[in-house]
Amino acid sequence: SKGWFVFLTLPPRSILIKELRAALGPLSGRGEKYCDEACLIRYLEARNWNVDKSRKMLEESLKWRAAKRPEDICWPDVSVEAETGKMYRSTFTDREGRTVVVLRPAKQNTSSHEGQLQYLIYTLENAVLSLPESQDKMVWLIDFTGWTLAHATPFKTARDSMNVLQNHYPERLSIAFLFNPPKVFEASFKALKVLVDPKSVKKLNFVYKENMESMKTMYKHIDPEVLPVEFGGNNNVVYNHEDYSKLMTKDDIKMTSFWAADGNHAVNGHSVPEVQSRSSQIVAKAS
């Protein structure tokens, strides 16, 4: 096909990575840290190795990170959003050591659009920080137990959440499991599917606790011995907000240390170079 012909005639990937690095121009502080080789590869993959499109995408992420400062969000800023355990970074990983993020939409406890987005970003940053060096993708486990249309995410929040995920955390999803989705969810999913890029749609797996064949798909990726009982595993662990708060408080210290490691502390000024530096530091995290 034409697509394959174009792909096969591309220069070697190493050259495209160097071209993207050069096209970005000088980066300082966090931007430099964010834009490591793994980061450049993710943005190139997200734009089918088109250097110009990848540059535009990455520059938008740098601007977004400079404005939002996701690495500066701390647990006290978002803890109210986490009280019911509607979204959290699990203490277990998949078989490859990847971070597993659990989402339980039926446990939605707030109506704040900004608060929910901020907590999503905080959780993504934390999940990335928790990845082992050999991995750069995470696993999502979305539990629909108890979900009804009354729990449906408002379209604006769903749209903005997908924009954040796809535009600023490209190629971060390894696989997602939609656990026990009710039939009524299918209609909502068809509407939301238009917001999701086709590559991500292929990573979505519907699994049902009573359907062992579908559960085997999840067991291939997550050992049932570490998977909580509520998700069809053998682990008796359950979400405890107090314990999770302690874990996130420790992780906030790790996050601060990670971003301070570049030695650039002049990030609170208002000059262009300092803002640039901030975005670069921020970018390091996403990579």
From TrEMBL:
Domain CRAL-TRIO intervals: 76-239
InterPro entries xrefs: CRAL-TRIO_dom, CRAL-TRIO_dom_sf, CRAL/TRIO_N_dom, CRAL/TRIO_N_dom_sf, PI_Transfer_CRAL-TRIO
Protein name: Predicted protein
Domain of life according to the entry: Eukaryota
A Pfam family hit: CRAL_TRIO_N
